[in-house]
C-alpha cells in the first residue's frame, strides 16, 4: 500500500509539471503592433507587387523571426507568432525593423526601398509596438521620361 501511494504521488507531480510546461509552451513567442509609413512615402509603399517584411532581431543583431506581407495597405496591423520564428527559443530583449521593397531581398537595401526600425528594445508578449517606416534609400525615380517638359526642353 505504501508503494502505491508513493507511485501515485509521483504520477500526480509529473502530470502537474507537464501541465505547467505545456501551458508555457502555448503562450510562446508573440508580438503585435502596427506599421505606419510616412505620408510622403505611402504611395510608393502601397504600390503593386510590394512586400513588407518585419524582421525581429536579438540583442546581437541576428534575425530571429520574419513576417512578410505582400501588397500591404498602411497603416497595417501585424502579429508575429512562434510560427514566424527562425530559431527554437527566444531569450532576452529584441528589436524590430521594417523593410518595404519590390525586389524581395531582405538585408539588401536598394534605391527606392523604404525602411525603419524600432527605437527601443522589446520583450516577447508586447502588443503595442509601433514601427514607422520613414526612410527611403536613394532618390525616388520617375517611372517614365515621356511627357516630362523639362527633360524634353533641355535637348
Give a structural overview:
The protein is α+β, with helices and mostly antiparallel strands and 155 residues long. The protein has a single domain, classed as Immunoglobulin-like (Sandwich). Helix content is 23%, strand content 32%. The protein has 3 helices and 8 strands. It has a 5-stranded antiparallel sheet with strand order 3-2-5-6-8, with no helix packed on it. A hairpin with a 4-residue loop joins β2 and β3. The termini are far apart. Mean pLDDT is 83; it is low at 22-26.
How would you sum up this structure in a few lines?
The protein has 155 residues and is of the alpha+beta class. Helix content is 23%, strand content 32%.
- The strand count comes to 8
Give the strand order of the largest sheet, numbering strands 1, 2, ... along the chain. Answer: 3-2-5-6-8
Strand-residue fraction? 25-35%
Q: In one word, what is the shape?
A: elongated
Low-pLDDT runs of 5+ residues are: 22-26
Can you write the helix and strand succession as a string?
A: HEHEEEEEEEH
CATH architecture heading: Sandwich
Mean pLDDT: 83
- How many helices? The count is 3
Amino acid at each position: 500500500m505504501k508503494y502505491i501511494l508513493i507511485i501515485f504521488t509521483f504520477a500526480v507531480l509529473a502530470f502537474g509539471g507537464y501541465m505547467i510546461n505545456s501551458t508555457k509552451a502555448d503562450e510562446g513567442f508573440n508580438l503585435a503592433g502596427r506599421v505606419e509609413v510616412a505620408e510622403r512615402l505611402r504611395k510608393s509603399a502601397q504600390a503593386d507587387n510590394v512586400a513588407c517584411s518585419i524582421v525581429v532581431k536579438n540583442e546581437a543583431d541576428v534575425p530571429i523571426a520574419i513576417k512578410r506581407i505582400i501588397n500591404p495597405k498602411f497603416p497595417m496591423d501585424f502579429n508575429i507568432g512562434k510560427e514566424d520564428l527562425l530559431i527554437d527559443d527566444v531569450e532576452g530583449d529584441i528589436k524590430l525593423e521594417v523593410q518595404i521593397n519590390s525586389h524581395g531581398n531582405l538585408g539588401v537595401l536598394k534605391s527606392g526601398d523604404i525602411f525603419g526600425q524600432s527605437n527601443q528594445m522589446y520583450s516577447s508578449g508586447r502588443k503595442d509596438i509601433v514601427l514607422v517606416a520613414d526612410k527611403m534609400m536613394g532618390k525616388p525615380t520617375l517611372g517614365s521620361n515621356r511627357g516630362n517638359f523639362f527633360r524634353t526642353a533641355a535637348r
